Amino acid sequence: MAYLNHDSNAVIVDAILTKKGRELLAKGQDQFKITKFALADDEVDYDLWDPNHTDGTNYYGAVIENTPCMEANPDETKNMRYKLISLNKDQTQVSTLSGLESPITLESNESRLLVPQTIPAGVDGTLGYTLILNDSSFANIQEVGSVPMGAGSHAASLIGSTDLNTSITAVAKSFKIITKPRLTTGDTVITIIGNESGAVYTIDLNVLALSLSPEGEVNTGAPAM
How many DSSP H helices and E strands does the chain contain? Predict the structure, then answer.
């Protein structure tokens, strides 16, 4: 996240690196290079825009402009939930994703099919969607419905890691989530992005722990169908 120091007019960046990022930074020799980034406006409340401000147009957004930015936070459930998007110059309507729900609660070894749909209809029909599962210890992802090679990877792949988890990305028309057996109930986040529209939908995924029989035996659950 960026902080603007109004006294010195300097931008101060507060960042938390993943374990891989710290390894590359320690190697030096230009090993650590930022090639992609995302912007978000989680902290902005647009209801604070005041077109009736008595001091004129320069002050309509004064409260918003003086709202402090959030500190960097490694918890994906609380950070960058509302990412900014880029639109084609001819697009007159901001696209949204439908056909999804949040939160989703699944048993261990259970599956769920996710079929995103974009409004307006037809957008994302060619390049499909990108799914990001923040923590691969919760589930596996199967891609359903192929998309052109230019849209991205065609096999769910590990894309990065922190000290605690590894993320998975997949590109397809729809996706099948297959939860892994867990001894403790836990939560992670799934982000689905329209590859043409830029529309984003965030799903809170809750995976329940394996149940125990009265004799203390672990119920591994039914195989995912």
Answer: 2, 15
